[in-house]
Amino acid sequence: HSNGNLEDGEAAVNCGASFITHLFNAMLPFHHRDPGLVGLLTSKLVSRPVHYGIIADGMHTHPAALRIAYRTHPKGLVLVTDAMSAMGLGEGEHHIGQLLVRVEGKRALLAGTETLAGSIVTMDDCVRHFIHEAGEP
């Protein structure tokens, strides 16, 4: 996660960074004048290819964003679950470390909020969701 803009990202890659964690999540949003770290997928100012983790759980990243990232830079894609230990616990509130997490369906929320606490979707579900939404085998 980062609040860095495109220029920050290009400098980081040119100093050795090679991976964007949770593309589109907990980062500056894409903007047409500064595409943020998303712009690294097509930047001509970086010295190496960049890989990106994208959460394909059906909650963290809109299907159109999955397609945009994949079609822009398919070789950089790394599917991640962002799964937390509430996975498999069932609906209700659970203490996860110091957090109180509320599980509702396939969402894990910080109790009392609508903020995602992480994911409770398995990798096989993420793969199926990605294939379905991206329209790619």
TrEMBL record:
Enzyme Commission designation: 3.5.1.25
Keyword list, A-Z: Hydrolase
Cleavable signal peptide: none
InterPro entries named among the record's database cross-references: Metal_Hydrolase (IPR032466)
Molecular function, one GO term: N-acetylglucosamine-6-phosphate deacetylase activity
Any one biological process term the GO annotation gives: N-acetylglucosamine catabolic process
PANTHER family xref list: N-ACETYLGLUCOSAMINE-6-PHOSPHATE DEACETYLASE
The protein's name in its UniProt record: N-acetylglucosamine-6-phosphate deacetylase
Organism (species): Halocaridina rubra
